[in-house]
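As a warm-up, study this chain.
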Amino acid sequence: MILDDDPSGDWTQTGVFRCAADVYRIPLPLPMDGLRAVNVYAMPDAEGWTLIDSGWALAQSRELLAAALDELGAGLGDVRRFLVTHVHRDHYTQAVALRREFGGRVALGLGEKPGLDEVNRVDEHDAFQAQRSRLLRAGAHVLVETLAKLRPEPGDPSVWAAPDDWITDGEEIAVGPDRRLTAVETPGHTRGHLVFADDAAGLLFAGDHVLPRITPSIGFEPAPTANPLGAFLASLQLVRSRPDADLLPAHGPVGMRVHERVDALLEHHGARLDATLAAVREGRHSAFAVAEALTWTRHERRLPELDPFNSMLAILETAAHLDVLVERGAVTVASQGGVAHYTT
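Now compare it with the structure written out below.
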């Protein structure tokens, strides 16, 4: 049964939810406690369907996507195209897996090519190779040793195959006879992240760039740029300069307006930069030490309370805030024993 979307309900509930004219939200499960689900958006297209994002390549996710499409009178083979906002596993890999079976096309932002190339270059059993040097620079040597002992389950490397089409910034994409999406490059969460704007309908398919309840991770990708938070803040300003729209996020409920949430995210990071600067002034000179002074998640947890993966995200994000403060001239940085040492 297709239901009208209810922003007050449980957004992770499985099913098909109509969130705009000819736009259907399909939440698919994730194998982790934090995010819980990813929203895939389905739209009728010429002789089939276009999906924005695809979900994680998991048996349960595939089954639920097939059931949702069945509610729409379609099947997995009717998906002619995936428009993927970015190359993280929960957005990209199921598109590639389904392409292998049914032949639909996969499209990804051109800015994601360095990250995808790096994923296919490194040893899949060394899950955190890309983050190791940055964690050492942050002074998180013990965490690096902990992460080195973690051995993830071997995955299917074929789900990281290249897309059929690379999308460029500003590209216009036709979906059916009447809908036109504009691809807007919004680097930060990843270096080639895209949002898709339907200006005529007043919709923004925001991926992980603008999320209604949480802030996206910064700096967790295989080939990060030098200043990912600076890029993220600039991308938020770019989205704020565009026409306001209904927010259709990859994680969380619909029902919020884009400008309202962007303003809140900018305010959050402003406060976070202030807290980071205060920690440096108190004598905390590494990203690891600063991260210990801050609180994390909506539950205001301390760094030692986080599991190793989320500790890594916290430290990398702290380093990203410190790099913005360096760029703004609020702190200086010098290397001491391979660790970035920040002072005011």
